[in-house]
Amino acid sequence: MSIKVLLIEDEKNLADMIAFFLDEEGYITERVHHPREALHLFSQFQPDIVVTDLMLPEIDGNELVDSFRQHSTVPVLMISASTMLNDRLRALHNGADDFLCKPFSLKELDARIKALLRRSIITYQDKPVKENQPSEMTGHISVNEYRRTLFVDSVEIDVTHIEFEIMKELYRNPGKVFTRNELMDRIKGSERAYLDRTIDVHISSLRKKIEPDPKNPRFIKTVWGTGYKYMV
């Protein structure tokens, strides 16, 4: 499966050049020129890594990273024409994982992306899986489709294939109400052979793993008479 890169760069020519290079290297690249577009696209595209400029219109790169960090641990590579040490330190302190000064070699950009992805995989593998979820969970949920992993508060949660597929669909569409049939169609397509109540069983199991209080769910809400929805 190809790695998905969200590129946020307001200099169109540079963005086009970087996107073309990344596409040629086999990445799936979505590029946006305005940070508000990035905020809208982030949850839909589910990138494996974000490459963002520091100096952006209206919302700078640090604010953007802060917004991403509220919901995701996705690796972030900050790029900037600034060579000031304070700018680099601020970006790293605010949640960026690496900082690359312009002008840079596209080969170096590729190497930095690969290094961040390797580092993130090692970090996730080193984190223990909680057998019993504590009641004090704050509940920052993130889903990484490339690695097929689910995290709560940056801790990997052990879920089944079906549970992951359900969570993936809900997470992609916050606020959208899914009927049981819609969820089964998304998961199994035309080959599905389950009764409606099976979805309820998987949802119940998933809630026990991700909800601070499964009896009073905060994230996966029941819409009575219809189905379920995911609330951020």
From TrEMBL:
InterPro entries: CheY-like_superfamily, OmpR/PhoB-type_DNA-bd, Sig_transdc_resp-reg_C-effctor, Sig_transdc_resp-reg_receiver, WalR-like, WH-like_DNA-bd_sf. Keywords: DNA-binding, Phosphoprotein, Transcription, Transcription regulation, Two-component regulatory system. The keyword Transcription regulation applies. Residues 133-232 form the OmpR/PhoB-type domain. It comes from the Bacteria. Residues 133-232 bind DNA. Residues 4-117 form the Response regulatory domain. SMART domains: REC, Trans_reg_C. The modification 4-aspartylphosphate is found at D53. It holds the Pfam family Trans_reg_C. The keyword DNA-binding applies. This is Response regulator transcription factor. It comes from Paenibacillus cucumis.
